[in-house]
Amino acid sequence: MSEIEQSGPGPAEGASQIWAPRIARHLPFFSIVAEEEHFHRAAQRLNMTQSALSRRIQTLEQALNMPLFVRSQRSARLTPAGAALLRDVQHILGDMDTAVAHAQAVARGEMGALRLALNISALRSPLVADSIRDFRAHHPGVSVEVRSELTEQQITALRRDDIDAGFLYDLAIDDATDVALRTIPISTERFVLALPEAHPLAARGDLRIADLRHEPLTWPSRAGGRHLYDQMIAAFRKAGVSPHIATEVMSGEATLGIAAAGLGMGFVTESENLPGGVITRHVPDFDVRLDLHLVWRADSRRPALERYIEALKARLAAA
Question: Cβ distance 284 to 208 under 8 Å?
Fold first, then answer.
């Protein structure tokens, strides 16, 4: 039995949902015949036989219960109903082309969204800021969303798939035992001691942890990063010193502010911008390092993220 004979009742008889796919697959052929106004030329353009093309149009006409063309040996001209259908079909096919092109662009990482999180101090790395700016410039179709989060907050967001990747310090990566992560190392920072320039220790060169035994210290809050907190405690214990923690803060900027006010001293990364009245000293036996990584889920299949990682690796290789 032919496709025409199998077709059954048309949409006018209440079967539009069943008929819609059968109708849709014939519409591109209908559009080409309408453009060429000739079955033979249309068949050549479509690289198919004229008889096969004619059967498709006949199937479409029977499905719609209306003639679409006035046929002659010289031409195939649209009926008024066919002309009305063509106008809508051209919009439909145009929308289909747009939808396919959009999906392909997303698959190539040229469109879509990239959700990044970062510890605010990560922006002090020129590579981080430059890589985000350059990616936006070269991928204008990708919406780049950036939010500021502490390291352990980023780990939680990665677990929940709330972000695509995060610039974070690897001190908390081991916490994510329930989700596999991949990383790219970005930079390593050393710590220095920030203290008021009027403090007696400021007159000395490099210091030792033992020199800080009785000094009131500003310390990063454990709530903001327990791994950093614990490693700093461990460094002091290794030196046989119990730190006198006078104040806990959430940022290096707060540590510097307290030092500028003459209220204490604390460790900050070397890249921090110092306010007036504050100097820094190296403490060689304080061997804590801060390693910045880009971290993402190993099971991620987000094309925009893949393109960003490629660009970031290229920038790292050129650095």
Answer: yes
Residues 197 and 60 reside in one and the same domain: no
According to DSSP, residue 170 is labeled G
* Residues 68 and 61: beta-carbon distance below 8 Å: yes
CATH code of the domain covering residue 129: 3.40.190.10
**Distance in angstroms (rounded) separating the CA atoms of residues 305 and 309:** 6
Regions of the chain short of the pLDDT cut 70: 1-21, 170-178
**pLDDT computed for residue 20 by the predictor:** 67
d(CA 220, CA 201): 21
> Using CA atoms, how far apart are residues 161 and 106, in angstroms rounded to an integer?
19
DSSP 3-state assignment of 88?
A: helix
Nearest to 62 by CA among 100, 111, 6: 6
On whether both 301 and 152 belong to a single domain, the answer is yes
For the chain, the domain total comes to 3
Q: Based on the domain organization, do 164 and 76 belong to the same domain?
A: no
How is the chain split among helix, strand and coil, in percent rounded to 5?
50, 20, 30
* DSSP symbol at 199: S
At 19 the pLDDT is 55
**Distances 44 to 92, 93, 204 between C-alpha atoms, Å:** 24, 20, 90
Residues 256 and 275: their CA atoms lie apart, in Å, by: 7
Q: Does residue 252 sit in the same domain as residue 235?
A: yes
**What is the per-residue pLDDT for 13?**
47
**Nearest Cα to Cα of residue 186 among 167, 172, 202:** 167
Which residues lie across from 192 on neighbouring strands? 268
CATH code at 39? 1.10.10.10
Q: Which domain holds residue 131?
A: 112-187+292-318
